[in-house]
Amino acid sequence: MVEGDGQFRGAEGVIIEEDSFVLILLHPVETFWESSGKIERIRQRYMAQFQQESVLRVDDPLSVWVSF
Question: Would you say 43 and 55 are in contact if contact means Cβ atoms under 8 Å apart?
C-alpha cells in the first residue's frame, strides 16, 4: 500500500481533499473474472465501512512479470 494525496468532487459539488492510499493487487490473468468480483466486493465493503461516496478502481490489462 502506498500513501497519497486524494481529492474528489463530493455529491454537493464541493472539492474534498483527503489522505489516500493506493492498493496494488496483482493476480493471474487466468483468474481475471473471479479476481475482479472479489476486488469489487472489497471496494464495496470499504465504501460502506468508511462512509465513502466512491473508491477509485483502475484495471490495467497489461501483463506484469513478478519474480521473488
Answer: yes
- For residue 66, the tally of other CB atoms under 10 A from its CB is 5
Distance, in Å, from the CA atom of 31 to the CA atom of 33, rounded to the nearest integer, reads 6
Q: Identify the residue whose cell numbers are 493506493.
A: 22
SS3 (DSSP) at 7: strand
Mean per-residue pLDDT, 35-41: 95
Q: What is the pLDDT of residue 44?
A: 96
Give percent above pLDDT 70 in the chain: 100
Mapped onto helix, strand or coil, the DSSP state of residue 42 is helix
For the chain, the maximum distance between any two Cα atoms, rounded to a whole number of angstroms, is 46
Query: Among residues 29, 28, 55, which one has the least CA distance to residue 41?
Result: 55
